[in-house]
Amino acid sequence: MKCYYNGQMIDIEQFNVTSKSRAFCYGDGVFETIITDAAGFPRHWAAHWQRLTAGLMALQIAVDEYFTSDFLLKKIQELAQINAPNVAARVRLQVWRKTGGLYTPTQNGADWLLEAQPHEAFVGEKQTTILAQSVHLQASAWSAYKTCNSLPYILAGLERVRYAADEIILTDTAGHLAECQAANLFWVKNNTLFTPSLQTGCIAGITRSWLLRNAARLGWQVQEICAKPDVLQETEIVFGGNVAGVFPIRRLHDWHFRGNTPAVIELLTQFYE
Which family does it belong to (predicted)? Predict the structure, then answer.
């Protein structure tokens, strides 16, 4: 397997970080997970680039002049074709602040790593879902971006495994629905698509952004809201979505969602791809 590290293609086994790396010590960076088609072209690249640059700006990390959308697009295609030839690839682009300082950085330049591997799509429904009790989200200047500190989702994952659930939904500190462990949350009622507001601390997901822009094409109105879990009791269709696709959620605790979710998922998949 190959990777790109600061613009140079190397064997992935050659990559290493020092004990002083700010990504290693402080989680001081952002990343994007990107799915390509079989030709290596990244889906929704413009949205990924926009979120990446916004996240870097929020963290005040400065990239080199050569680090442009066109440059990365070419590198992603090259790497995907090498590591995952003729199949869809899962690409991770991570950018972090250069070494220096303790909590206070001594410089704001960037190191970056680009990886790619064959993508394994998730197919299926989430039959059992729980609400996270061990961790809650809170909105911040960086909460909408995918930072290198993923502790809330790690702790939520441990809780999900402990209760043998298929999925877990996180809430914010006020108890509002926020997102799934690794996907945004959506529900449909009366031809309206609902999704939690970014004020809950959820990620500004690529699928979320796409649905907000294109819901009208699916015959839906859109509302971004702060809502308590009880709102789902009167909902027929609930699903999660990320760059890998969308998946139905069938049950949360004792609430069953029996709407025609497969039809909705099929429709979403057709438009999304």
Answer: Belongs to the class-IV pyridoxal-phosphate-dependent aminotransferase family.
